[in-house]
Amino acid sequence: MSHFYGSIPTSARKTVPTARAHKSTGLTTVAASWAGAVRVDVWYNEETGKDCFHVYQTRHHGAGVEKLLSQGEIGE
Q1: What value, to the nearest 5°, has the Cα angle with vertex 74 and ends 25 and 59?
Q2: Is the separation of the CB atoms in 65 and 56 below 8 Å?
Q3: Could you tell me if residue 57 is inside a domain?
């Protein structure tokens, strides 16, 4: 059974694409433009027993910056 779930609710597609991931793998999503990208990583922290996240600005095709925007525990 999947622990994490991702979706793209708004896009040019007629259907909503989804992705599932397990505690052991975590889930990474990337949304990009020609100016750069935003990446979200979610994972299960075995030490705390909590689901965690990082949100980054990142480069895309040579454009953009590398910067941590936010981090924490999901639901906190």
Answers
A1: 65
A2: no
A3: yes
pLDDT tens profile 11-37: 998 999 999 999 999 999 999 999 999
Instruction: Give residue 59's domain range.
Output: 23-76
Cβ within 8 Å of residue 14, ≥6 positions away:
none
pTM over 0.70? The answer is yes
Domain count, the chain: 1
Burial (0-12, 13-18, 19+ Cβ within 10 Å), 56: middle
Question: pLDDT per residue over 45-56, tens digit each?
Answer: 999 999 999 999
Residue 62 belongs to a domain: yes
